[in-house]
Amino acid sequence: MSLEPLGDRVIISALGAEEVTASGIVLPDTAQEKPQRGKVVAVGPGRYVDGTRQPLDVVVGDEVLYSKYGGTELNVDGEDLLVLNEHDILAKVAKAAAKGKK
Questions:
Q1: Which of 11, 24, 75, 101 has the most crowded Cβ, counting Cβ within 10 A?
Q2: pLDDT tens digit string along 16-50?
Q3: Which among 68, 69, 79, 57 has a CA at the least distance from the CA of 13?
């Protein structure tokens, strides 16, 4: 199935939650927090503001942080996806600069 979000909606594939704490304790699935980081897999065309369509600030492939309880969870073809409004996205994760370049 192929999904195409409408308006200012974004479809995100959640990245897995941490399974080991910083101190090395392995967490079972039931103790893990809901992930808040994911990869954008589809974006809508944007919403209209004063008759003009406003493009979204994210594009397919961006890694983002999103609101913990925002969006609607879906399972499409065995993949867990999340449909969010753009305002539920808190930040884009900056890509690390290439090593050796200043």
A1: 11
A2: 655 665 676 766 555 555 668 899 999 999 999 99
A3: 79
Contact (CB, 8 A) for 61 and 38: no
Q: How far apart are the first and last CA of the chain?
A: 44
CA distances from 25 to 18, 22, 28 (A): 11, 7, 10
Q: Please name which of 49, 45, 83, 44 lies closest in space to residue 66, comparing C-alpha atoms.
A: 83
Give the three-state DSSP class for 42.
strand
Q: Are strands 9-14 and 52-54 parallel, antiparallel or unpaired?
A: unpaired
Q: How many residues does the chain have?
A: 102
| Sequence-distant (≥ 6) Cβ neighbours of residue 15 within 8 angstroms | 35, 37, 38, 39, 63
Note the pTM of the prediction, 2 decimals: 0.74
